[in-house]
Structure formats: structure tokens, C-alpha cells
Amino acid sequence: MKLKTGDKVVVIAGKSKGKEGTIIRILKDENKVVVESANMVKKHIKPNGQQNGSIVEREAAIHASNVMIIDPKTKKPTRIGHTTNKAGKKVRVSKKSNENLD
User: Fold this and answer.
1) Which of the two ends of the chain, N or C, has the fewest CB atoms closer than 10 A to its terminal CB?
2) Is 75 helix (H, G, I), strand (E, B) or coil?
3) CATH number of the domain encompassing residue 37
4) First and final CA of the chain: distance in angstroms?
5) DSSP label at residue 100
6) Would the pLDDT of 83 be above 80?
């Protein structure tokens, strides 16, 4: 997966299409990501001895193919490529502006 925690992304498909946010968590086994304030679902909390039951809203996972990283230069969705820097280290780059993403 080319996405990392903390990347600024835009949702390109689904009920949250068009929303922007940062990646909170990555679920590598399922190829999914959790994006801040996107794909909100209601979660029912069962009451126990210390607290009352309630309904809370939280982010649900989105498939990684339904989000695109935002280019830091043009502020538009872009694909991710890889190249090597002068030190010989592999880095992620934006396909639109060839800007370094790391």
C-alpha cells in the first residue's frame, strides 16, 4: 500500500465522495484506511456499571482504492509514484507535480 498514516487524502467514491481529511489508521490486511471525518457511522454503546448506553458517531474504514492523496503543490488528487533521491533512498513522489511526498 502506497498510503501512510498522516497523509492528506480526498475520498473519490462512496457516500463520503469529495470529503478531505487525514489518514488516522491503516488496516493493511484488509487494504483499508480510516480517514478523519469521512464515512461516519453510528455505533451503539451498550450500558455497563460505570456508564450509560449511548449512540456515538465514528469513522469507519474505506477501501484504499477509494481515496487519492492530495498533491502538496497543486492541491488536487494525484497518484503516487516512487523514485530514488540523491542519497539513494526510495521516496514517494506525486505523479502530477513530481513533488516529494515524504
Assistant:
1) C
2) coil
3) 2.30.30.30
4) 15
5) B
6) yes
